[in-house]
């Protein structure tokens, strides 16, 4: 028979998967002999069973729980429902990972009218008993029956008003008794039956509520954001009560063993006397700081301090603890590794190393790579932010804080940005043509689009703050309305790209501060990781930024991004609408020096590190003019009739451009494009190599969207013929590599053949995901939400690599590719290259490097080190 229930004394800290974080730590503290009110934990497997059994608690599990109540009665010498000596318990949820959004704790369970009356007489403290009782009814109704807590608060406020008092503490026993009565009445009105008086019935109601809360929308959303699988389930802790509300020598509090905001050593916390449970955090009275406890009760403070030190030494990390004092006696109710700001995380990790508590490997492993982002971008001045109220909230699309004057067009943003003004670009959504304006804006706000929309992806790549998908915005003529106010061009607003908050005022920002602690941890990370970290960069500026963040090369340079610059778009348009090879070659000749110049800049910025340049990839029509005036202008420039040009544009229309005439297909139809790009890549490399004889430049030319080895061979021949001729003529001994993207499932499945023609593979997991799932990144936002709701998918496969399906293609390609060519270089260049869980997958799959946008490079360095340590 499976064991589903464990006394605290039966478990320990290593049983986190089974007992949840809270349960495992209660067991561990029990084992350490600390003062923990005793109880038992119902395992996460019981929760999984609950769902497997159609949301029912199986009879065998029920029996075990009842059995353990018996054991707890014996242990405490109290009895469930016994008026003379009642066992009262708390019911607390706790999953493997700490998860806000789960069910609230229920305290004082086991009370009913009989218990209350006898207990009041016995303790001689009816005020305490009725206070506990009314709290129990309130919490139980709210949590178990979902009656809603607002009405209970109203009743309390009414009572205070009637009595002419302000503070909860001024209500006497009779008032609280009356409140309890009113609460029960409310319960009956809403639910249609009496408030349960049988403690066992109360207990199972509470346990079911914990299991149910695992699947409430808040919890589901939180899991998706944090990569927590839904089959983990939650444990339930049933623990005998201790009372912080027994009078003035009782109290409750929370404390951290170090400052969670700064990382400074020393106890940090708050407590309240004569209070219970969450009173401290709920802010019903102003709490005292932990220092005041030292003055109030030095003996107890010392005892607490000693426990804190022991816990830190034991867990070797900063602890976040909850405690209760019952008539002068200290009880520990929880401990866990405390959440902390990014700055504190780095300081604490380094301090722990210096204190000899952990080694540098542990320091590298204990920092959440996602937190790094916050350190690399400007933040709001905390004092200035304190006085501000958000006017709306969108998606936290790209982190950092921004403050500037509202502009509505990319042109305006670029013009004013170049003058050194701070502007925020506000758009319905962004398109590739907005790139320049996005670059010069301090922040970007869009009404439409999700976390992987154009605005979000581009902004993250640039490291520009972005809030996307704020649907409440309505646009006027050069104005927008939000939160009941209208903002005109030139008005100041502020964005928080880490929370999604938008403020209708200027809030000061302070630049990112990458301190010494950060540097130390990153140095250790670089020592431990085995995968290289490259960057996706299209301009020398991005390349430089990425180098500053520690990139060791470029994994993807997208040549097309260079074509959107205003002075180039006309040349590329000319190339596209060309009718003959000669015409096209003459247009390409105009592009050649521009591309060569770009590549020289990029090689220079990368200081000799490897650079992978991808040949032209997107469907050609993306470059064509849409505005009639642009069409007319282009026609004039090319000496064409407008009508004839319109016909060309029309002919380029595609029904499904993402699967249309793009990638290497462009070079198959127009080999002169690939030839020109190869020339630019090789000539630039020769020029830069001459300038830096100490470097050993080996450009990597990447052919996109290959699905068949013959297609790769055809385009590769264009590349090698061109490159070899130029190199021979130059007299410089330049090596270069030719490889391909693996982004079409057919390429992955035939990777053994593809590898005969490729010196490297780079997994283009954006397209690979798109083509494997059969839906596009740009359209998926419309329906993925329904898939999450219906539990078909748990998260966005474009943000987190689908290790089951897409992952199988990657693994297949790795295996087949190495079979043919054991020296083949393998990397990833999709958005996933900067996602920690995907990076872990890359490590396990045996890739040589990951490549990601510049601002994610430090995240990738840390995540790669963690992956190496975890899988080493
Ligand atoms: P959360 O996960 O939201 O922190 P907890 O389960 O830790 O919820 O419970 C919240 C608070 O309830 C605790 O900090 C503690 O003050 C109080 N509490 C829980 N169980 C008990 C108990 N057995 N005796 C006294 N107080 C308790
Ligand atoms: Mg807690
Ligand atoms: Mg692609």
Query: From the alpha-carbon coordinates, what is the Rg to the nearest angstrom?
Result: 32 Å
- Class per helix and strand makeup: alpha/beta
Strand arrangement within the widest β-sheet reads 12-22-21-14-15-16-17-13
Q: What small-molecule ligands were found?
A: adenosine-5'-diphosphate, magnesium ion
User: Outline, from the CA principal axes?
Assistant: elongated
What does this structure look like?
With 872 residues, this protein is of the alpha/beta class. Helices cover 47% and strands 17% of the residues. The strands form 6 sheets. Strands 12-22-21-14-15-16-17-13 form an 8-stranded mixed β-sheet. An 8-stranded parallel barrel has the order 24-25-26-27-28-29-30-31, surrounded by 5 helices. Strands 1-2-5-3-4 form a 5-stranded antiparallel β-sheet. Helix 4 runs antiparallel to helix 5 (126-143), helix 5 packs parallel to helix 7 (173-191) and helix 22 packs antiparallel against helix 23. The structure holds adenosine-5'-diphosphate and magnesium ion (2 copies).
Notable traits:
single chain, 872 residues, alpha/beta, eight-stranded mixed β-sheet, eight-stranded parallel barrel, 35 helices, 47% helix, elongated, binds adenosine-5'-diphosphate, binds magnesium ion
What is this structure, in a nutshell?
The chain is α/β, with parallel strands linked by helices and 872 residues long.
List the helices and strands and how they pair.
Layout: E1 5-7, H1 16-31, E2 39-42, H2 44-52, H3 59-76, E3 89-95, E4 106-109, H4 113-123, H5 126-143, H6 150-163, H7 173-191, H8 199-213, H9 217-225, E5 234-240, E6 251-258, E7 265-273, H10 279-282, E8 288-289, H11 290-296, H12 298-315, E9 319-326, E10 329-337, H13 342-354, H14 360-365, H15 372-376, E11 379-380, H16 382-386, E12 390-393, E13 395-398, E14 401-407, H17 410-418, E15 423-427, H18 435-440, E16 443-446, H19 454-462, E17 465-468, E18 474-476, E19 479-482, E20 485-488, E21 492-496, E22 501-503, E23 509-510, H20 516-528, E24 532-536, H21 540-548, E25 554-558, H22 566-577, H23 581-606, E26 611-614, H24 628-637, H25 642-651, H26 664-669, H27 671-691, E27 700-703, H28 709-730, E28 737-742, H29 745-749, H30 751-754, E29 760-763, H31 765-773, H32 777-789, H33 806-820, E30 825-828, H34 836-845, E31 849-852, H35 857-871
Parallel strand pairs: 14-15, 15-16, 16-17, 24-25, 24-31, 25-26, 26-27, 27-28, 28-29, 29-30, 30-31
Antiparallel strand pairs: 1-2, 2-5, 3-4, 3-5, 6-7, 6-9, 7-8, 9-10, 11-23, 12-22, 13-17, 14-21, 18-19, 19-20, 21-22
The structure holds adenosine-5'-diphosphate (ADP) and magnesium ion (MG) (2 copies).
